[in-house]
Amino acid sequence: MVIDSMGPHAATGQVLVNCSVFDGTGDSSLSDQAIWIRSDGTVALVGDRQDVMDAAGANPEPTTVVDLAGGYVMPGLINMHVHLGLALPGAMSASLDRDNPAALALQMAGNARRTLLAGVTTARLVGETDYTDFTLRRAIRAGTVPGPRLFTAGHALCCTGGHGHDSDGLEADGADGFRRATREQLRAGADLIKVCVSGGLAGEHEAIETPQLTDDELSAVVTTAHDWRRTVTAHAGPADVIERVLALGVDGIEHGYQLTPEVAAEMARRGTWYVPTITVSRCREFFEEHQVPAWMMERALGAGPRHWESLQHAITAGVRIVLGSDMPPDAPFDGTTATVREMEFMAEAGMTPGDVLRAATSRAAEWLGVSGQIGTLTPGAVGDLLVLDADPAADVSALRTMHAVVQGGRAVRDDRGHWAKGRTA
Ligand SMILES: [Zn+2]
Questions:
Q1: What pLDDT shows up at residue 331?
Q2: How far is the CA of 365 from the centre of ligand 1 (A)?
Q3: What's the total number of domains in the chain?
Q4: 230 half-sphere exposure, CB direction, 13 A CA radius
Q5: How far is CA 270 from CA 89, 215, 249, 425, in A?
Q6: Which of these, 9, 135, 205, 300, has the minimum number of CB atoms within 10 Å of its CB?
Q7: Residue range 222-247: mean pLDDT, rounded
Q8: 326 Cα: distance to centroid of ligand 1 (angstroms)
């Protein structure tokens, strides 16, 4: 897959100077660095200031110098579990008119913009309504509305009455039904397929433990998606269901509320991806603010201790873990955003800062099949980056000090006016 350019570009190339850089791959940041970004928005060179200035100066393209005042630069975040049209049971659902396509599109566009400004330059959508996500993906690519680069699943697939059937789920039954539902998402342009194989937190009539697909139904999804070279990720809670769907060939597990050491080891052995979305079982204030019903509050927060153990089992086993918030990426949480708080939780559960940063950048790009194009600050990658006041490779809470967001070489957020003060070299 080739990453698109994002709307119009800067008229000149630019050299970002006076910064330290975490490039998305290693364990530490390098100090006294400079980054040359060409006018097409791609990274040309990262290295010592003089080397970079010399290389940019030898190029005929005019170049603007942007002084980052000692800031720390890292790749833009990739949030792998997002619903831009999220409407949890309760006040969120009551306020969103899902039967009004314009209202849904506007809500999703607003959420996309806030997601980008929160530092999420790429989002993987794992369940949206009425194919609005594909229209939004086109609008963002064209530069019509601001938002993260989108990789999207279209509708999540579920059985009749299954998880998500009353929100973003498309109901199907039987192998033929699931094959068709999968093909409908591919026809619409799905980058991946999302399927709900067990109950979850937000379905009133189910439990987390409820198995929801038969083997032949899931096999139909996996075979069809793989034939079309797409990955399949499964919303899944209990260990026995996860063990079963691993054997049927799913590529990733979302939430995994009840992993055991044995199932985590099997995921590691198979190279299965894991998006823990650990915030969803610990965000009481968010649920209170949005007045979710008592049954959901109880189930979500009640799942918390076991969910935390799951994450720790996955870390211990060496499972390939990536960042995903499920909550709106920009939602306020403990004085920061849900995305940054998710990264802090990952560190608290035992991942090193380097592990967490890679889970939010280069590792996520690997799953998306776009390694080297996003998620790293290396030559040829697009210029998606954040500027912070502190070193994220020392402590991921440094992301709380984010003050600039650049996408495709364009500063979409510039709290300190670094770009406004840029001068022509
Ligand atoms: Zn979700």
A1: 95
A2: 19
A3: 2
A4: 24
A5: 35, 19, 9, 51
A6: 205
A7: 97
A8: 5
Residues 388 and 325 grouped into a single domain: no
The two structure tokens encoding residue 353: 């800062």
Residue 112 CA to ligand 1 center (angstroms) comes to: 16
Q: What is d(CA 342, CA 325) in angstroms, rounded to the nearest whole number?
A: 6
How far apart are the CA of 281 and the centre of ligand 1, in A? 12
Domain that holds residue 127: 77-368
Averaged pLDDT for residues 148-171? 95
Once rounded to an integer, what is the mean pLDDT over residues 176-193?
98
Q: 409 burial class (0-12, 13-18, 19+ CB within 10 angstroms)?
A: buried
Distance (Å) from CA 83 to ligand 1 centroid: 6
- Residue 2 is assigned to a structural domain of this protein: no
Query: Who surrounds ion ligand 1 at CB < 5 A?
Result: 326
Does 5 fall in a domain? no
Mean pLDDT score, 61-75: 95
Q: What is the mean pLDDT of residues 333-347?
A: 97
Q: What is the CA(347)–ligand 1 centre distance, in A? A: 21
The CATH number covering residue 222 comes to 3.20.20.140
Tell me how far the alpha carbon of residue 9 lies from the centroid of ligand 1, in angstroms. Answer: 33
pLDDT at 8 over 70: no
Res 5: pLDDT: 58
Q: Averaged over 281-299, what is the pLDDT?
A: 89
Q: Could you give the maximum distance between any two Cα atoms of the chain, in Å?
A: 66
CA of 182 to the centre of ligand 1 (A): 18
Ligand 1 centre to CA of 37 (Å) is: 35
Q: What is the pLDDT of residues 404-420, one digit of tens each?
A: 999 999 999 999 999 98
Give the pLDDT of residue 96: 78
Q: Which of 53-67, 79-93, 378-392 has the highest mean pLDDT?
A: 378-392
- Cα 75 to ligand 1 centroid, rounded to whole Å: 24
Say which residue the tokens 């399949």 belong to.
232
> What is the C-alpha separation between 237 and 248, in angstroms, rounded?
16
Instruction: Give the span between the Cα atoms of 140 and 298, in whole angstroms.
Output: 37
Distance 124 CA to ligand 1 centre (A): 11
From the CA of 87, how far away is ligand 1's center (Å)? 11
In this predicted model, what pLDDT tens digit does every residue of 342-372 receive, in sequence order?
999 999 999 999 999 999 999 999 999 999 9
Compute, in angstroms, the gap from residue 67 CA to the centroid of ligand 1. Answer: 39
